[in-house]
Amino acid sequence: MMDWDKLRIFHTVASSGSFTHAGEKLNLSQSAVSRQIRSLEESLNVSLFNRHARGLSLTDEGETLFKTAEDVVSKIHFTEQQLLEGSDVPMGELKVTTTLSFGSTWMMHHIRGFIEKYPEVDVQLIVSDQDLDLTTREADVAIRFRPSEHLEMIQKRLGTFHHHLYASPEYLSRKGRPRTVDDLDDHNLISYGEVPTIPVQGMNWALTEGTLEPRKPILRVNSIYGVLQAVKAGIGIAALPDYLVQGSMNVVRVLEETEGPEFDAYITYPQELRTSKRIAAFRDYIIQQFKGTRF
User: Distance of CA 59 to CAs 20, 41, 163, Å?
Assistant: First the structure.
């Protein structure tokens, strides 16, 4: 029978991409990890990794075993969390994912209260503009700015976000303040860069507002938070969500009467976690925090 310890080490090596990184996670030496993998390969009579100067890559046999190991690890983790849910107190690991800009700003300012209220919950906040897969437990719960495409997901609308145009006072003193939407044709515009997954649809509305021919931006940035920093640096005008600008210095709203598209925020999690105490605690906490914030 396959040795579980060796399978666990194999899964960590495959996930990490190197013996060294796997050893750091497992608190084992690189040579010890290498020996365990070699022993597993010998017992299965296959090569699981292609070894090259840049690191490791899985062979076809390794890919097959990794899929099984991933499934086993996921089921063990899920079972562990179910057992922990037997307590009246929310506890266990909680992986929360949201966009880079929202997670790095609003969430950072509001997550402290949850951590202090539920010290037995081990919170991991994963900020990324790429959607993590909740069905494979890359995260337990997500805050996203569009409805989930998966019908089996539980989701609840949290609130509505608003977009407006912003610039720095230094930029406006240098280039002048636009008085109409048509004036944007003569201004430097900053847009969200082209990426495989856009966290919020329609973010680049300033490029098409009031014109048939899209305006060419002077700068594209693949991070909304990066767009804000570009505005602060005086590079140009950008459409930004209002929540991101709140409390920012050296940023002012322009063309105040021009409204960008509204977009809703949702908290989303899998059906199998509907009875989870830690999910319920986090959901209720976030709903309450949203009620006290203007977006």
Answer: 19, 12, 47
| DSSP letter, residue 205 | G
Contact 118, 95 (CB under 8 A): no
Q: How do beta strands 163-167 and 237-241 pair?
A: antiparallel
- Cα→Cα distances 292→100, 106, 224, 266, Å: 22, 12, 23, 16
Beta strand 121-127 with 189-192 is unpaired
**Residue 265: which residues within 8 A CB-CB, separation 6 or more?**
143, 144, 145, 157, 158, 159, 160, 161, 290, 295
For residues 293 and 106, the answer to whether their CB atoms sit within 8 Å is yes
Please tell me whether the overall predicted TM-score, pTM, comes out greater than 0.85 for this model.
Answer: no
| Sequential pLDDT tens for the chain (295 residues) | 667 888 888 998 888 888 888 888 888 888 888 899 999 888 888 998 888 877 788 999 988 998 888 888 777 776 766 666 666 678 788 999 998 888 888 888 889 999 999 998 999 999 987 888 887 778 899 999 888 777 778 999 998 888 899 999 999 999 999 999 999 999 999 998 775 556 566 788 888 888 888 899 999 988 888 899 999 999 999 999 888 888 788 899 999 888 888 888 999 998 888 888 889 999 999 999 988 777 7
The DSSP H or E segment spanning 63 is helix 60-84
